[in-house]
Write a structure and sequence with these properties.
By secondary structure, this protein is α+β, with helices and mostly antiparallel strands. It is built from 11 helices and 21 strands. Helix 4 packs across helix 7.
Length: 401
Amino acid sequence: MVDMELRKYKLKDIAEIVNGATPSSSNADYYDGDVIWFTPKDLSDQKTKYIEKGERNLTLKGYESCSAKMLPAYSILMSSRAPIGLLSINVNPCCTNQGFKSLILNKEICDVDYLYYYLKYHMPEVESLGSGTTFKEVSKVALESLEVNLPSLQFQSKIAKILSLLDDKISLNREINRNLEALAKQLYDYWFVQFDFPNEEGKPYKSSGGKMVWNEKLKRDIPKGWENTTLGDFCEMYQPQTIGTNELVSNGLYRVYGANGIVGRYDKYNHEESEIAMACRGNSCGVLNRTMPYSWITGNAMVIRMRNNDCCNEFIKQALPYMNIAGAITGSGQPQLTRENLSAVSCIKPMKTILQAFSNKVTPIVSFQLQLTLENEELIKQRDELLPLLMNGQVSLNSDL
């Protein structure tokens, strides 16, 4: 084991701090070119440490029209207002808008991954440097004065490597889950949109000449033996008991799902199984979430559960986006979905044997997705607990690392 010695710097001693800028938005010639340009919104949707490109590029003419400065690859992008503290490392040369104070590092003193984690841990100190009445902003001068304690470059690299390995595994799990989600959707589309589910001979039904019949209510051909039905006949729907935000518990054991996904933690759960929950209030009406087992689902979401309990609920999760849910939304000021309106939505009812065969295919996919999501929660917890211990030197590093 080797003890870690820290040396104190001002941030301006280890990095050049760079402002961003925005070309005139009224000039279309300034946008949609090849110059990578970021806004804080690009980082707000970012779930990985590194970022490749933003939502919108600039043209060279647009870049030259404003005071934005080009950042070399592997600089640190940090939003300095609205909100303060979104962080990423750019893997390509880029520039930003005025919502950033970005850092071009002296890499003879500082490891870029280490400083990324250091700023992440010390973000409350960065936020305390903000000033302003309408919204807080960290100025370049204030940020330059931030004190940074750095170990040797060798120790920085070792610490960053440990934390990066955890982040790499988290990113890999997310990528696997995205692929599993795409796989489930592709299978659903193949079976229930193109009607090429396996026939008695294991061949694609429709492509192999399977009989299709006209359905007057659905106004389309469907496989023989299938029916039209309504969501109310096909599924049980209900809004669970809600809880107020003041009842959430920061270190609660169980996840709480609202209209837009997880909104906090609680010390009780009201659903043991993973459910399909649809936002039923507000502008996100119709947005779907698959909840984790042992969660509390609030009344801002409608739980939609197939009446046939033998079938995996992945079927209804994949089927709902093809239904006319938008037509069931009422209320202009406060959009809402009621059980009565949802119950009347038309849908296809496949033969039970096909539903069961689909369930057998997707159940392992869903189980693996839930397992990876749970694993990521544990990895994030471990990383966040390890971060301060490594930064403060409370954990000694093995010299062989």
